Amino acid sequence: RTIIYKKLKSSYPLSDTTLFFNICWCSFLLNIVYMVLFERNNIEEWLLKLALSSSDAKFYVLVNGVSFYMYLQLSFTVLSNVSAITHSVLNSFRRPAVILFSILQFGNNLSRINGIGVMMACIGVSVYSILKRSTPSKEKIT
User: Fold this and answer.
1) b/e map of 26-44 (b: 16 or more CB within 10 Å)?
2) Are 127 and 70 in contact (CB under 8 A)?
3) Please, which residues have CB within 8 angstroms of residue 22's CB and are 6 or more apart in sequence?
4) What pLDDT does residue 137 have?
5) pLDDT at 2
6) Up-side HSE of residue 88: CA atoms within 13 Å toward CB?
7) DSSP string, the chain
8) Is the N or C terminus of the chain more exposed, i.e. has fewer CB atoms within 10 Å?
9) Which of 137, 135, 102, 95 is nearest to 117 (CA)?
10) Residue 68 CB: number of other CB atoms within 10 A?
11) Model confidence pLDDT, tens digit, residues 106-123
12) Rounded CA gap, 46 and 72, in Å?
C-alpha cells in the first residue's frame, strides 16, 4: 500500500494527508465488498458476538482500529522521508518490537528459537543502519 501511495502521489496533486485518507477509505470499502461477498456468515456471527459482548470488548475493537490507522499514518510519514528499501527494513523491525512488547507487557513466554529469530532481526536492522550511514548518500528510490 505504501509503494502504491508513492506512485499515486506523483500522479495526483493531493496533500499527503488527503491522499492517505482516500487510500484508507478505498481500502475500507474494498474490504467491506470482499467481506459481504465471501465472508458473509463469519461477519454476521462476529457482529452478533460483538453486539452481545461487554462494552470493554467494543472499546478494544475501537482502540485496535484507531491504533492500526495511526500505524498506517506513521508508515506513510516515514515513507515520505526515506527510500522504499529503508522503509521496508524499518517495517521488518516492527515484528520483533511487537514480540518484545508482548513479553514485557503480558508476560508471554519466548522459546529459544523465537529468541534467536528476534535477535537476528534486530541485528539485521542494526547492521543495515550502520552500513547505510557509512555509505555515501545516493538519490532516494521512488
Assistant:
1) eeeeeeeeeeeeeeeeeee
2) no
3) 14
4) 61
5) 62
6) 7
7) -HHHHHHHHHHS---HHHHHHHHHHHHHHHHHHHHHHH-HHHHHHHHHHHHHS-HHHHHHHHHHHHHHHHHHHHHHHHHTTS-HHHHHHHHHTHHHHHHHHHHHHH-----HHHHHHHHHHHHHHHHHHHHHHHSPP-PPP-
8) C
9) 95
10) 11
11) 888 888 998 898 888 888
12) 24
> What integer pLDDT is reported at residue 42 of this predicted model?
81
Q: What pLDDT, in 10s, does the model give residues 25-36?
A: 888 899 889 888
For the chain, the average pLDDT equals 79
Under the phi-then-psi rule, with left for phi > 0, alpha for psi from -120 to 50, and beta for the rest, what region is 102? alpha
Lookup result for grid cell 465472508: 39
| Residue length of the chain | 142
Q: How far apart are CA 107 and CA 14, in angstroms?
A: 44
pTM of the model: 0.56
Residue ranges of the chain with pLDDT lower than 50?
141-142
